[in-house]
């Protein structure tokens, strides 16, 4: 089996496991993530942190984002443009959220576009070395590459449930490792 096929298999298996978690359990686990992650990593007030609004059976990190904002973070959300490119638009209190594609909502085009210093990254599978498998479209890989090309070095923190861990994620040259993972069991650095 080649790397692409193996990644696809892991993606499908781990997303099915995540989908199998009852909604009330996902809510409970998401609140545990806010408890574990709210104070787990250091950043200066004004640091730009990209979160995300949940789609499908993803963890709901809005409680975590609220904790980070209370600590002084400047929040933004990913918005897919032209079906290939993610930009990160500032999320401010009271701003209207609009449909941004792929079943999610985010700040509209009038919101400031920011370069996040910390990215909370959704994923389908991860391993104990910080390797991740995304959803297969490469949006985050391209966004991270663009940030690196601009001289930025964003800290990448994966967001997943424990059931999404696999023994080993096969890697390719373009894959970028996470620095940490946050699950319902806690915050782990790599």
TrEMBL record:
GO terms for biological process: folic acid-containing compound biosynthetic process; tetrahydrofolate interconversion. SUPFAM superfamilies: NagB/RpiA/CoA transferase-like (SSF100950). It catalyses: (6S)-5-formyl-5,6,7,8-tetrahydrofolate + ATP = (6R)-5,10-methenyltetrahydrofolate + ADP + phosphate. It comes from the Bacteria. ATP binds at residues 7-11, 132-140. It comes from Ciceribacter selenitireducens ATCC BAA-1503. The keyword Nucleotide-binding applies. Its EC number is 6.3.3.2. Belongs to the 5-formyltetrahydrofolate cyclo-ligase family. One of its GO terms (molecular function) is ATP binding. It is an enzyme of class 6 (ligase). Its cofactor is Mg(2+). Keywords: ATP-binding, Magnesium, Metal-binding, Nucleotide-binding. Substrate binds at residues 53, 58. InterPro entries: FTHF_cligase (IPR002698), FTHF_cligase-like_sf (IPR024185), NagB/RpiA_transferase-like (IPR037171). Gene3D superfamilies: NagB/RpiA/CoA transferase-like (3.40.50.10420). The keyword Nucleotide-binding applies. Signal peptide: none annotated. This is 5-formyltetrahydrofolate cyclo-ligase.
């Amino acid at each position: 089996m080649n790397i692409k096929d193996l990644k696809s298999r892991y993606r499908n298996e781990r997303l099915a496991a995540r989908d199998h978690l009852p909604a009330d359990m996902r809510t409970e686990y998401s609140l545990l993530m806010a408890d574990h992650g709210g104070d787990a990593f250091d950043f200066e007030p004004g640091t730009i942190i990209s979160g995300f609004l949940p789609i499908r059976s993803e963890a709901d990190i809005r409680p975590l984002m609220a904790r980070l904002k209370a600590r002084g973070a400047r929040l933004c959300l990913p918005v897919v443009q032209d079906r290939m490119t993610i930009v990160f638009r500032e999320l401010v209190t009271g701003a209207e959220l609009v449909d941004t594609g792929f079943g999610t909502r985010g700040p509209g085009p009038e919101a400031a576009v920011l370069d996040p210093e910390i990215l909370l990254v959704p994923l389908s599978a991860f391993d104990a070395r910080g390797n991740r498998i995304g959803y297969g479209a490469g949006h985050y890989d391209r966004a991270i590459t663009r940030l690196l090309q601009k001289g930025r070095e964003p800290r990448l923190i994966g967001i997943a449930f424990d059931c999404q861990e696999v023994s080993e994620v096969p890697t390719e040259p373009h894959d970028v490792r996470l620095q940490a993972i946050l699950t319902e069991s806690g915050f782990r650095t790599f």
